[in-house]
Specification:
Strand order of the largest sheet: 1-2
Radius of gyration: 25 Å
Shape: globular
Largest sheet: 2 strands, parallel
Structural class: mainly alpha
Number of domains: 2
Distance between the termini: 44 Å
CATH topology of the largest domain: Serine Threonine Protein Phosphatase 5, Tetratricopeptide repeat
Strand content: under 5%
Number of helices: 31
CATH architecture of the largest domain: Alpha Horseshoe
Length: 628
């Protein structure tokens, strides 16, 4: 979905300064203070928050941002210890429900309910999570309906009296409205779906917020319409738009359902083509039906390997949040990595006692002090989006283009975008230099313009813009930014995958730290990429079973986070391991049909729009078929 200038103006704000954000965002969106705070907090409290006279809690900040159409994906969130613990418990509840670990979910939810305050958002979270558990357990629909009715009316009190277009709502609230109508007033569901479609077609929602709700609305519109009343031409158009959004963003929200709807609609369309003279049209439609079938089979295949469900079962994905860190942990870990004493860190900023109390989680200093401490630790003193620091509105669509171009090996487009990016961010900032030069170095190697050894050397230099190489290799707890981790991973890969080299050992240690912190879903992007490479190493050194187990584990975690863009790499790794077992006459536990696996890889590449990878695997399949 093409975004407007207004969207990028909103994304470019410094979110350390929350009051400035909401003031600017309201101005951009044309939203009144009354509409923004309705049923969340009082008008006077909202005014104090916007003026910086009152600090909003994280749940309230998140909901305000969500009502402004801002998705947290791609952002880094730094929280004080108390807020972090509350957030962490919420994530445990969400992830436990996703994995059908109801015992853990119930236990954590009971603790959360006891400690929650008398706030609508906390009550709403508890009710929605209770409803999610009941849905997954297939409990009494009437009781579930009552839960959703109570939940939605906490922050949308007049839902039965007003049109959605007259409200200011988050994707979570839109989702609750869908569930409320489905459970309590099914006769109104189709009308609500149409209202929500009109509401979210505005410029308000960013791409990742939009894609979280749009596919579900289309699915519920389909469910709310009787077979004989369906406008298949419109449903096909709307459904295809949802599929394309999911393919572009690499997400799986209602992907299986929309593909199934598309196949059903195209089958209906095929039946309408009766004239023999239209055989070419029939053939084209049949080809698309066959493609949809291949995609569904590939998704079913992955779910079968991982023991996961192909259909959406809950709305928990709307409450999954990424990239959150405890401020005290970040400061302590980073300071120790850099070998700094508390006295050295606090010099010119605050007292040594303040640092001690902060690291011991006994104080919450002013945010300006935290900003200065971060900058002294070579971390961004400004809130980051997509790992760059800038307030220029024109930078963000360029960053999106760079990421997508690099992923599909479109070297020229990526390099052109990197040059363009220089105009919109401060290149004296070491974080921005590090981001840009890492991409440039990898692109140069991809075009075979520099050797692997020179690439590795350049990446070490780039890493040291923000942290000494030796500090990054220290064992023990650590905090590295996403770009620093990516630099270290690049160095590890260019050093070679014939053994677990020092860089890989550090990255594996960090992944274990994420697991210990129960943080894999929160840092899934970094964890996923590191562990895919680790699986490759174990395959290279002949530990095929361990490599396969890691690949399946990565796929499973990716599915729980609704990410699709790396699935084929893991399946391909399993195929490679199987071939190596055959060459070395290593016994196998179960015979693997390599041709079937490769076909599923190709279908997943198509889903991910990765034509480069698709061609490579297609060649492998052709070579295999020639042998047979």
């Amino acid at each position: 979905m093409e975004k407007s200038k207004k969207y990028y103006e909103l994304q470019a704000l410094d979110l350390w300064d929350f009051p400035s954000l909401i003031r600017k965002a309201r101005e951009i969106q044309g939203i009144t203070l009354e509409a923004l705070c309705k049923d969340l907090c009082s008008f006077s409290m909202m005014g104090k928050i916007e003026r910086g006279e009152r600090l909003a809690g994280k749940e309230l900040r998140d909901r305000i941002l969500a009502r402004l159409g801002v998705c947290s994906d791609g952002y880094e969130n730094f929280l004080f210890h108390e807020d972090y613990l509350v957030w962490k418990r919420q994530q445990r509840i969400v992830n436990a429900i996703e994995k059908s670990d109801f015992e853990t979910a119930e236990k954590e939810l009971a603790i959360y309910e006891k400690k929650k305050g008398d706030y609508n958002l906390e009550k709403q979270f508890c009710l929605v999570m209770r409803a999610q558990i009941m849905q997954k357990r297939h409990e009494d629909p009437a009781a579930i309906a009552k839960m959703y009715e109570e939940a939605v009316k906490l922050t949308v009190s007049d839902i039965e009296q007003v049109s959605i277009k007259d409200l200011c709502l988050s994707v979570q609230e839109l989702d609750m409205i869908l569930e409320y109508e489905r459970c309590c007033r099914p006769e109104c569901l189709a009308l609500r779906c149409e209202e929500i479609l009109a509401y979210i077609s505005s410029e308000m929602f960013d791409t990742y917020s939009y894609v979280k709700i749009y596919p579900k609305v289309i699915y519920y519109l389909y469910l709310s319409t009787a077979d004989q009343d369906r406008d298949w031409n419109r449903l096909l158009r709307l459904g295809n738009k949802g599929i394309e959004q999911l393919r572009t963003t690499g997400r799986m929200y209602y992907l299986w359902e929309l593909i199934e709807i598309r196949r059903e609609g195209l089958t209906w369309l095929l039946d309408q083509i009766e004239n023999d003279e239209e055989s070419r049209k029939r053939e084209a439609v049949q080809q698309v039906i066959d493609r949809m079938t291949e995609w569904l089979d590939a998704l079913d295949f992955v779910h079968g390997l991982c023991g996961t469900h192909r259909k959406m079962e809950t709305s928990c994905y709307l409450y999954q949040q990424k990239e959150a860190y405890c401020i005290s942990d970040v400061i302590r870990r980073r300071r120790e990595m850099l070998g700094m004493t508390k006295k050295e860190l606090c010099d010119g900023i605050c007292s040594e006692k303040t640092i001690g109390r902060l690291e011991a989680n006994k104080t919450k200093p002013q945010i300006e002090i935290v900003r200065l401490l971060f900058e002294k630790l070579n971390l961004s003193g400004e809130y980051q989006r997509w790992q760059v620091v800038t307030k220029d509105v024109r930078a963000y669509p360029i960053v999106d283009t760079i990421i997508r171009s690099a992923n599909i090996c479109d070297f020229e487009k990526a390099k052109k975008s990197l040059r363009e990016l220089e105009m919109y961010m401060d290149m004296e900032n070491p974080i921005n230099r590090q981001y840009k030069e890492r991409y440039e170095t990898n692109l140069s190697y991809g075009q075979r313009k520099i050797s692997k050894n020179d690439t590795r050397k350049q990446l070490k230099t780039i890493l040291e813009y923000t942290i000494p190489y030796v500090a990054a290799l220290k064992s023990g707890e650590k905090y590295l930014t996403n770009v620093e981790m990516q630099c270290l991973l690049d160095i590890a890969v260019y050093t070679g995958k014939s053994s677990i080299n020092t860089e890989f050992e550090i990255l594996i240690e960090m992944c274990k730290q994420m697991e210990k912190d129960e943080g894999i879903p929160e840092h899934i992007s970094a964890w996923e990429m590191i562990m895919i490479n680790v699986a490759s190493i174990y395959g290279n050194i002949g530990d095929y079973d361990k490599s396969d187990a890691i690949s399946v584990a990565v796929m499973r975690e990716s599915i729980f986070c609704y990410r699709i863009n790396m699935l084929e790499l893991n399946i391909y790794s399993i195929v490679w391991n199987n071939e190596e077992r055959g060459k070395k006459k290593v016994p196998v536990k179960q015979e693997l049909k390599e041709e079937e696996y490769l076909k599923k890889c190709i279908a997943l590449c198509q889903l991910n729009k990765n034509t480069i990878r698709e061609r490579i695997i297609q060649k492998r399949l052709i070579d295999l078929q020639k042998k047979i």
